[in-house]
């Protein structure tokens, strides 16, 4: 069964143009009267009818689709977008050698916080309990002091580390001391007194 939509109406109109062009006018059916037409008008009607019918037959829904859409605002459908979970990349090591965080018993909690923070920033660290018995008594620091001991090879690296500690833990850093020590057992270490 043929339904009367925009494509059907266009096809009927196309066939009507072709008929008018072929018959040449001078036709009267019931109340419809088509006067005689010139050859140019008849040719134009045939061409227009063929083009219109070709368009309807090639894509019956696409050409007149806008005229088939209801007018007025349409309800919007909610679209739920799921976030894409990507694995977080492993932080790239900033300093190629691992270094130790040495701490006294009173600094154990802070040593773990500092280790966790520096690990997320790409530093390779380990925490080690130490009573600093190997350090001469006159070189001991006051309680609450953070001392960064480094060899001259780590000199350019040490200011970035000191800045990272000061920035992240401004309330926990009572005193931060940076000292060059080429006789140290490792290139770089943090001492928490």
Compact description:
The chain is of the alpha/beta class and 193 residues long. It has 5 helices and 7 strands, in the order αββααβαββαββ.
Word description of this protein:
The protein has helices at 6-23, 39-58, 65-68, 108-120, 158-168; strands spanning 27-29, 32-34, 99-103, 125-129, 145-150, 175-180, 188-192. It has 193 residues and is α/β, with parallel strands linked by helices. The longest helix is centred in the N-terminal third of the chain and has 20 residues, at 39-58. The relative contact order is 0.13. The model has no long low-confidence stretch (mean pLDDT 80).
Key traits:
five-stranded mixed beta sheet, 7 strands, Alpha-Beta Plaits, two-stranded antiparallel ribbon, alpha/beta, 193 residues, rod-shaped
């Amino acid at each position: 069964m043929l339904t009367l939509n925009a494509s059907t109406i266009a096809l009927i109109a196309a066939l009507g143009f072709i008929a008018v062009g072929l018959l040449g006018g001078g036709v009267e059916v019931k109340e419809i009267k088509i006067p005689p037409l010139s050859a140019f008008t008849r040719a134009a009607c045939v061409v227009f009818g063929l083009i219109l019918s070709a368009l309807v037959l090639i894509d019956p829904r696409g050409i007149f689709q806008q005229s088939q859409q209801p007018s007025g605002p349409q309800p919007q459908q909610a679209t739920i977008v799921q976030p894409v979970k990507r694995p977080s990349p492993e932080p790239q090591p900033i300093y190629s050698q691992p270094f130790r965080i040495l701490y006294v018993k009173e600094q154990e909690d802070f040593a773990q916080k500092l280790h966790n923070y520096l690990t997320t920033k790409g530093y390779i660290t380990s925490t080690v309990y130490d009573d600093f018995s190997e350090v001469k008594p006159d070189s001991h620091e006051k309680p609450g002091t953070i001392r960064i001991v480094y060899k001259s090879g780590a000199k350019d690296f040490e200011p970035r580390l000191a800045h990272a500690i000061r920035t992240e833990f401004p309330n926990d850093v009572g005193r931060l001391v940076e000292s060059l020590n080429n006789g140290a057992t490792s290139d770089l270490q943090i001492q928490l007194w």
